[in-house]
Amino acid sequence: MKIVNRIALALTFGLLAGAVHAQELTGTLKKIKDTGMITLGARESTAPFSYNLEGTQFVGYSVDIMMKVVEQLKTDLKIPNLQYRILPFTAQNRIALMQNGTLDLECSTTTNTEDRQKQVAFSNSIFIIGTRLLTAKDSGIKDFADLKGKNVSTTAGTTSERLLNKVNEDKKLGMNIIAAKENGQAFLSVDSGRAVAFMMDDAILYGERAKSKNAEKWHVVGTPQSREVYGCMMRKDDPAFKKTVDGVVADLMKSGKIMPIYKKWFEAPIPPRQLMLDFPMSEDLKQLYAKPNDIAIQ
Q: What distance in Å separates the CA atoms of residue 201 and residue 159, rounded to the nearest whole number?
């Protein structure tokens, strides 16, 4: 009888624990469990991190990381057929779409800043960049001082736009800043001759150069105006969901599983034209991979 009672008691506690666990789901995890769906966000023109491949699918370094989170959720929530949809967003509307519940998660090129942390949450960082300039090799532009009185493009709603305006004001350069909706449009301003340089995160600049019709025409120059970290963005005050995303990112880095993803997008030809970025891994990124964290460093 005692053995039977112990088994019954164990089963009872097991069922109760399962029920409590199910009841404990809150926020985004509960939303995903209840609907069997997660809504992801992606940028359409931030190669090699997140971009629309000829209108067929979103691909990139950040997208691959985001899909690892989806795979983990399938296991954690016991939803092997978890569905997902990917919605495009812009630098201008990404925070609003996260706050109003349209997006559940986005891993693209969103910089983790202390100001943004007041509005949204960020995962362990997924990349570290510096902000520089993409310009034609024969433009005569070597650094930011050479931009005096010239047209310069950037992407609206980004930290690069804020930094470029600050440089313009502090250095009294008299630049005319063209703020485009997307990175591809900002680069087009340079390619078409409307601007002499495009300021943005260095890895994105390498991506735009690789996508261009004549990659050899362009180079990335200038003293970095900041060091910034990208993180996956989520809604604030949802610690359980953040813990899941943080765990996926940390495991990728500590286990070394991130390396094939890095090599795929930064050291091998990328679609659609199979061009090389030739973007070497920085010491900053090596240190991040060794010690994952969610600290804003810019």
A: 9
- 29 φ, ψ (degrees, to nearest 5): -60, -40
Pairwise CA distance, residues 197 & 204, whole Å: 14
The residues, any chain, with a CB within 8 Å of residue 75's CB and separated by 6 or more, are none
pLDDT given at position 98:
98
DSSP string, 87-101: EE--TTTHHHHHHTT
Q: Stretch 250-275: mean pLDDT, rounded?
A: 95
Strands (E), 43-77: 45-46, 50-53, 57-59
Q: How confident is the model at residue 23 (pLDDT cuts 50, 70, 90)?
A: low
Here the tokens at position 145 are 């001082």
Give the fold, CATH level 3, of 26-128+228-290: D-Maltodextrin-Binding Protein; domain 2 (3.40.190)
| Interatomic CA distance for residues 123 and 250, integer angstroms | 10
Please report how the helices 27-35 and 239-255 are oriented relative to each other, as an axis angle in degrees rounded to 10. Answer: 90
Q: How much is the pTM?
A: 0.85
CATH assignment of 131-226, given 3.40.630.30, 2.60.120.10, 3.40.50.720, 3.40.190.10?
3.40.190.10
How would you classify residue 36: left for phi > 0, otherwise alpha for psi between -120 and 50, otherwise beta? left
Question: Mean pLDDT over residues 96-100, rounded?
Answer: 97
> Could you tell me the residue ranges of all domains in the chain?
26-128+228-290, 131-226
